[in-house]
What we know:
The chain is mainly alpha-helical.
Amino acid sequence: MVFLVRWTVATAMGFTLVSPFIMAGMFIMGFGMVDSGLPGNLYDKIVFTLIGLIFGISIGFGQTLALIGQVKKPILWLPISIFGGTLGGFIVGLVSLKSLGLAFILSVAMPGIFLGIAQKFVLMKFLKKATGWIIANIISWALAQVLLIIPIFGNMDLYRILNRIEDGLSFDLFIDLIIIFASVAVIGLITGINLTWLLKNFKKE
């Protein structure tokens, strides 16, 4: 139970603290890409890839901290999460070249698919098997986005977040960060339940 709470909180906290600042950097890069005259479809591809990178860094950062003391070489979790998240974003970006609508639909589960596949390679280093890990990731990412992120963030655009950060500490920024935390906590809880079970039953000696 202690590990489950730590994993859930670390996953949500990592994303909450890291992602707004990465989003700000992406926003600045976006201006540069627009000024460079890139075609719209190529611009969309780059944006989807960068979003995948954000997911990989922010989720991987928190989860790596949670794994300290639980497994050997927990630092491996971060680069593999970055790779999985970025690859998922890149695949969605490729789809966006053909159909932007289909790309948005795929983006609901795509982070979970590729993060799950990538992270499973690390899990197999200290688990006899990682049953259900990819499925748990797909379900958690889909639920978090369909039930929380998409409806809530429909009224929380990038400009709003950046303005909140620029204005400094405020009640509005606090509320926005709480919403982000609650959204990603869904991912942490579902994957944490699965990982807690795996560590209890299949951990290598």
